[in-house]
Design brief:
The complex is a heterodimer of chains A (274) and B (328). Chain A is mainly beta. Chain A contains one helix and 18 strands. The longest helix of chain A has 9 residues. The radius of gyration of chain B is 26 Å and the shape is globular. Chain B contains no helices and 21 strands. In chain B, the strands form five sheets. A 13-stranded antiparallel β-sheet of chain B has the order 1-2-3-4-7-8-9-10-11-12-17-18-21, with no helix packed on it. In chain B, strands 5-6 form a two-stranded antiparallel sheet. In chain B, strands 13-16 form a two-stranded antiparallel ribbon. Chain B has two domains: 191 residues, TonB-dependent receptor, beta-barrel domain (Maltoporin, Chain A), CATH 2.40.170; 136 residues, no CATH class. Classes of the chains: A mainly beta (274), B mainly beta (328). At the A-B interface, strand 1, strand 2, strand 3 and strand 18 of A face strand 14, strand 15, strand 19, strand 20 and strand 21 of B.
Chain lengths: 274, 328
């Protein structure tokens, strides 16, 4: 039997296996699209919709808002389609003769510069708040208020909360202190075993003159939650510090546009402070 | 790390119905993870020789896969992982039909084939998936369907000092995920419209043989933002966002390269030697691996700002290599 062995000799010339090539001679892609910011709440439709446009990526070092003031904006609900008009003072589109109703579905239609975009939302009913518990604990030099609000969530909605201390001044005026903890909105999946969402609150104050504590809650179309969760760091603002890693956010505007159009409803419960 | 087991049984029968017509039928049953998933995979292949050197063929097959290649399409860099079925992830399944014709002449072969494949239970990352400790990876996945179809042409020369083959594939691959790309169908990373391979081998004499391979493939798709905008919700301060109109809306330039080789066989001191010289990517094509936007600080020191550049990562320039093999 012939014994055969193979001895490989491989000589590689010293060339790099990979490299990063700067292709800045290539144009960065740009496609102008509509930007839509819209929120509708029950009642007359006021200051509801902002329309803007996108800019090339190279415009990132400038303060750009790109508000579009000559768009055609319509709101469709049921068999009715109504036009929204520009409120020049606020650069927003609205029409206060349209009365938005909780539980109804609305479609926003925007046309500008040959581009068409649309989005649909349902205006949720006001949140179903159950109970607000408040407790007071006297500390050495302050008072600690703790509170818990219970809410019965509905599917396809998200909830955001804020708290307000009210004080009736000697002149009979209501003085309010708003406390917004900027928490991420909660959804039905966040409910406790009892099926309710528990909003917790703790506030330490040296002032003990407050009379009532108000729990404010807003219900949103679920699209708002999807946007909020997908966009990443909620604290971020100002000049962008993007890298390639930043990916798409979940918007609900369709067509040649981007943005969010969502319904919201508010309700509150006021309880006397112990 | 994930562990699992699977078991399968297979039954197949080759039946030559007539001298020219044959049929191959079979079925496979797979079971995975204590029987959590049990799937039957029937398959059928028909072959009919209509002339001495012309054969028609057709096939149908169903297949299941318990390992999923999950592709992250929302960022520019290829970021793929393999995950197994279970924990809310269903086995992916495909149903494929194909038909073809083969012409087999003396020393030359020509084959043309067309296929269609439908795919179910495919998984991808959700947009802006958050990879966080304690959050199951599958929580970042969303499921959808896919389709692949196209045709293949294969020509081969098998005899003589000059041999070789050329293969060409024209293909479309699509994905549809309700939660991705606004529910619109998109092309995944690996969708390649054209794929060509040309292989030529030339035997000069007993001592020398030469070879060349040229490959060409349409560029892969990738995602890039197409704009920038300011968005400010009433509840908070505004910020800038990147606009991604389409998932995988851009395509890298085509990939192509030529590799050549020369081999010389000789005897030295009674030992057989074979010297080989290969050059990978002869014309040093800068084939892109990925493109992405990178922000760099520009401007004077007192007023620096971020400016975006389109970067391209390329791999494997021209690579000569030499080899010497000794047989004793």
């Amino acid at each position: 039997m012939r014994l055969s062995r193979t001895i490989p000799f491989l000589l590689f010339l010293g060339l790099p296996l990979g490299c990063e090539e700067n292709t800045d001679s290539l144009d960065l892609p740009y496609r102008e699209r509509l930007v839509i910011e819209g929120i509708i709440v029950p009642g007359p439709l006021r200051g509801a919709v902002r329309v803007a446009r996108t800019f090339p990526l190279t415009a990132n070092n400038q303060v750009i808002e790109g508000t579009v003031l000559d768009a055609l904006v319509f709101l469709r609900y049921g068999d009715t389609t109504r036009q929204l008009h520009l409120n020049r003072e606020r650069s927003l589109y609205d029409n206060d003769s349209i009365i938005v109703t909780a539980g109804n579905t609305y479609t926003l239609l925007v046309d500008w510069n040959g581009k068409h975009a649309q989005a649909t939302t349902r205006v949720p009913s006001p949140p179903l708040m159950d109970t607000v518990y408040v407790a007071r604990r006297n500390m050495n030099d302050s008072v600690l208020y703790t509170a818990e609000a219970l809410l019965n969530p509905r599917a396809d909605e998200a909830y955001d909360a804020s708290w307000i201390f009210h004080t009736l001044t000697s002149g009979g005026r209501d003085s309010a202190i708003y406390l917004d903890f900027s928490q991420a909105p909660l959804v039905a999946e966040d409910a406790a075993a009892d099926g309710r969402i528990h909003f917790l609150f703790a506030f330490r104050t040296t002032s003990v003159v407050h009379d009532t504590l108000q729990f404010n809650c807003t219900s949103f179309d679920r699209a708002y939650y999807d946007f909020y969760i997908s966009r990443g760091d909620p604290e971020f603002s100002g000049v962008p510090t993007y890298s390639y890693f930043e990916g798409p956010v979940r918007w609900n505007v369709q067509g040649e546009g981007v943005g969010l159009f969502y319904g919201a409803s508010n309700s509150h419960l006021k309880v006397p402070l112990p | 790390m994930q562990r699992s087991w699977d078991a399968s049984a297979f039954l197949q029968d080759e039946w030559r119905v007539t001298g020219a017509f044959s049929l191959n039928a079979g079925a496979r049953i797979n079971s995975m993870q204590d029987g959590s998933f049990t799937d039957l995979e029937p398959r059928l292949a028909l072959s009919c020789r209509i002339l001495d050197n012309v054969t028609l063929s057709a096939a149908y097959a169903v297949a299941h896969q318990y390992l999923h290649l999950v592709v992250r399409n929302d960022i520019s860099f290829p970021t793929d992982i393999w995950v197994q079925s279970g924990d809310g992830i269903l086995p992916s399944s495909t149903e494929q039909v194909s038909a073809g014709i083969q012409l087999d002449f003396r020393g030359e072969l020509l084959r043309v084939e067309a296929y269609h494949k439908s795919l179910k239970n495919l998984y991808e990352y959700r947009d802006m998936a958050e990879i966080t400790a304690g959050v199951p990876t599958s929580a970042n996945f969303t499921s959808g369907t896919g389709e692949a179809y196209g045709g293949e042409l294969f020509v081969e020369k098998k005899l003589g000092p000059l041999t070789g083959w050329v293969g060409y594939t024209l293909a479309w691959t699509t994905r549809t995920f309700p939660e991705l790309n606004n529910g619109q169908t998109f092309f995944p990373h690996y969708d390649k419209r054209h794929d060509v391979t040309l292989v030529v081998l030339y035997r000069v004499d007993e001592a020398w043989d030469l070879g060349a391979t040229w490959t060409y493939a349409s560029g892969e798709t990738y995602t890039l933002p197409a704009g920038l905008f300011f968005y400010g919700l009433p509840q908070e301060r505004g910020r800038y966002y990147l606009d991604y109109p389409d998932r995988n809306g851009y395509r890298l330039p085509p990939f192509h390269k030529l590799d050549v080789s020369a081999n010389h066989s000789f005897t030295w001191f009674g030992l057989s030697f074979r010297l080989s010289m290969d050059i990978y990517n002869v014309y040093n094509r800068q084939n892109p691996f990925a493109r992405y936007i990178k922000y760099e600080e520009v401007g004077p020191a007192f007023a620096k700002y971020s400016y975006p550049y389109l970067k391209q990562l390329t791999l494997f320039p021209i690579l000569p290599s030499f080899g010497l093999r000794c047989t004793f």
